[in-house]
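## Example pair
The file below holds two records. Each record gives the amino-acid sequence first, followed by its structure token line.
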Amino acid sequence: MLTPRLTLFSTQVCATVAAVVLASVLCLASKEFVMPTAQPAKTYPANDEHPLEKVTVAVDPYDMADKAHIFSVHYSELGFVPFFVVVTNDSDQAISLTDMKAELITANRSKIPPATPDDIYRRLAHPSANAGRTIPIPLPTKKVKGTVSKQAQEEIENSQFGARAVEPHSTQAGFMFFDVSGISTPLAGANFYLTGVRDAKGNELMYFEVPLEKYLSAPAKP
């Protein structure tokens, strides 16, 4: 039979543990996505610089847990790899990204476009469905969104690369999500392509090709 003092102590311990657990849950629930601060594209290992046009494109895959913790959604478990895409314009004229088109080409030459928010919503709503790169069965967007938390929706929408232009001597960045489900080593031997970037006169720049091997072979940061 517990003495009143032991009973009080036990109650206090339980209350403390419950408070810690509740604080952790609330902290996790209130976690908001914060876009990483983009550095000049040249500073990322995986980049393609066009010296004459003075434009550089870089990609930084968030394929490791120590980087992916900025997200509340576990995209790797859903078959997606988030790519932090960085575009730096060192020229004296703005460049347009309105017609920009991105594509990941794997070592076996599979061509993967960036997933749309609806693609990610569908996978979240049906995580066991292996959509791969086939055309998904049409589902009403509102219905799919209804099964995805508001926090996840906001994260997916706010993380997307949405820049339409890059001003002179500035950088724009954001995430693109690629569906690599079913590919054991999606980055090995893969290349990221970006086309449709135009200068101030409307002329399309030479396409950008970023080998992902540059990222994989880069020395680990201390």
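Second record, same layout:
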Amino acid sequence: MANTAINIAGVEFKNPVMTASGTFGSGMEYGEFVDLSNLGAVVTKGVANVAWPGNPTPRVAEVYGGMLNAIGLQNPGVDVFIERDIPFLKQFDTKIIVNVCGKSVEDYLEVVEKLSETEVDMLEINISCPNVKEGAIAFGQCADSVFDITKKIKNVSKKPIIMKLSPNVTDITEIAIAAEAAGSDALSMINTITGMKIDINRRTFALANKTGGMSGPAIKPIAVRMVYQCANKVKIPIIGMGGISCAEDAIEFMMAGATAVACGAMNFVNPYLTQEVVTGIEDYLRRNKIDDIHEIIGCVK
């Protein structure tokens, strides 16, 4: 049996397969399909300092090769999450990564400080949130603001942090370099790509928010390219995601330089996906007589 264990910032994962934030809740909805103990980690839906109601409906639309969502990071807030979701996840032999969102730097710091006192393993920081104090420009769209928020979070966090990068930028490597320079332990990439759909019969936007985040197989080639670019610019580990629908997709990300992978939108199509990717990677390694998964990480130069 090939070794599939990986290590990110001192945290040991039994395999490199995770869930992508916002597509798996905290795993409760998927319990009858997937044994969470078989996954490297469960990455939770975004958690804020207070409950967020999310955006008005409709907030999901199907598009060619994927979906648009403008959920608006609806969540019950960090206190409910700590009381309800962490005890649920602790039942399983998997790592717990909590996605953190906020509308100001202070919001993020409040959540990070509270989660630092819990038994979670890592924090994934969603910097695609609009910064209300800076005219709603996303935190992750400017290298200087990425450096600033990363450094402030790193100063208060007792857990390793993963900065989740937005693809909605001119040069994603600049953002990756800024996050690394400020002390991020790893990167998650990519988040969704901004898109729009118009309902021609109703002559209006398909989403009440007008725009939404595009995810699904159509974005995979863009995500693989961005992972490859960043893997060749930074030394910290990358968790690759964006349109993974099978083990072959996951392996592609790892060959581009990702240490781990996260399955997202396609969980909605196939709730067994994460488990199938785990076994598919094991089958690939066995068929190709590869003893250790590290042999394929970043093997394409």
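Notes on the second record: Residues 6-50+72-194+213-295 form a domain with the TIM Barrel fold (CATH 3.20.20.70). The chain has a mean pLDDT of 96.
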